[in-house]
Design a protein that fits this description.
The complex is a heterodimer of chains A (100) and B (170). Chain A is mainly α. Helices cover 78% and strands 2% of the residues of chain A. The radius of gyration of chain B is 21 Å and the shape is globular. Classes of the chains: A mainly alpha (100), B mainly alpha (170). The interface between A and B is large, with 69 and 84 residues.
C-alpha cells in the first residue's frame, strides 16, 4: 500500500516546480502554464486529504477549482491575445509599460 | 501493483513538470503539461476519486490544454528569449521555494496520523459525490455556472478586435 505522505510530497514538488517555472520562464503563455501546474499540485493534496478523512467535500472542492481554472484559462488566454495584439510580443520583459 | 502504478505515474508527473521548465518552445511545454495532467488523473484513480479522474482528463487535459495549444499556434509563439530575468526573483525566490519545500517535506515525513491509500474502503463513487453536490451544495454549483457565463462573455469581449485598432479607411 502507498503511504499518503508520498502523494503529499508529490503535490508539494509539483507546486514548487510551478513556482520555479513562474519565476524563470520568460514567455507569457508558459508563465500561465506554470500557474496551472500549481493548481494541479494543490488539487492533488485536496484529493489526498479527502481520501484520508473519508469525506466527499474535499473532492467537491477540487471540482470547483477545476471550474474556476477553466474560467481563468479562458479569460487569461483572451488577455494574452489582447496583449499580443497591442504589443506584438509575448516576452514578459518587453511588457513593461507600468515599470518604474 | 498499486505501488508500481504510483511510482510509474508519479515519475511521469515529475518528469513532465521538469520538462515543462526545461523546454524553451511553448508548444513543448504545453505537451508536457498534458502528460502531467493525464498522470495526475491516474493518481486520482488510485486514490479512489473516479469522477475527478474523468473530469481531470476531460476538463484539464482536454478543454484547457486545447485552449493553450490553440493560442500558442494562433499567436505563432516562437522560441523563448533567454534573458537574465529579474534579480529579485533569483535572489529571494529560489531560496524561498527551496525553504518552503524543505519545511513541507519535514512536516510530512514526521506526521504520524497519515494513513495509507487503499481502494478497499476508500472509493468515492459519482453517486456519493452528486448526492452532496446537488443536495447540500446546490447554490454554489449554480453560482459556478454564472461564473462560467461571465468568463465566456469576458473572453469574447477581450479577444475581439477593438474598433480603435482597425486600420483607417476600411
Amino acid at each position: 500500500m502507498i503511504p499518503l505522505s508520498w502523494y503529499l510530497l508529490l503535490s508539494a514538488a509539483l507546486f514548487s516546480l510551478g513556482v520555479i517555472g513562474f519565476l524563470i520562464k520568460r514567455n507569457l503563455i508558459t508563465v500561465f502554464m506554470s500557474i496551472e501546474l500549481m493548481l494541479n499540485g494543490v488539487n492533488l493534496s485536496f484529493v489526498t486529504f479527502a481520501h484520508q478523512w473519508h469525506t466527499v467535500k474535499g473532492q467537491i472542492f477540487v471540482f470547483f477549482v477545476m471550474m474556476v481554472a477553466a474560467a481563468e484559462a479562458a479569460v487569461g488566454l483572451a488577455i494574452i491575445i489582447a496583449v499580443f495584439r497591442a504589443r506584438a510580443t509575448l516576452a514578459v520583459d518587453r511588457i513593461d509599460l507600468m515599470k518604474l | 501493483m498499486h505501488l508500481i502504478l504510483f511510482i510509474v505515474f508519479a515519475g511521469c508527473c515529475l518528469a513532465g513538470a521538469i520538462n515543462l521548465l526545461v523546454q524553451s518552445h511553448p508548444i513543448n511545454s504545453a505537451l508536457s503539461l498534458i502528460v502531467v495532467m493525464t498522470s495526475l488523473a491516474v493518481l486520482y484513480l488510485l486514490l479512489g476519486a473516479e469522477f475527478l479522474a474523468a473530469a481531470q482528463i476531460i476538463v484539464y487535459a482536454g478543454a484547457i490544454m486545447v485552449l493553450f495549444t490553440f493560442v500558442v499556434m494562433l499567436l505563432n509563439a516562437g522560441r523563448e528569449e533567454r534573458t537574465l530575468g529579474s534579480h529579485a526573483a533569483k535572489a529571494v525566490g529560489f531560496p524561498a521555494v527551496v525553504a518552503i519545500l524543505a519545511v513541507i517535506a519535514t512536516v510530512l515525513l514526521k506526521a504520524k496520523g497519515l494513513g495509507e491509500a487503499s481502494l478497499s474502503d476508500g472509493i468515492t463513487t459519482t453517486e456519493d459525490l452528486s448526492k452532496v453536490l446537488f443536495r447540500d451544495l446546490l447554490l454554489p454549483f449554480e453560482v459556478t455556472s454564472v461564473l462560467i457565463l461571465v468568463a465566456i462573455l469576458g473572453a469574447v469581449a477581450l479577444a475581439r478586435a477593438g474598433d480603435g485598432e482597425r486600420p483607417a479607411g476600411k
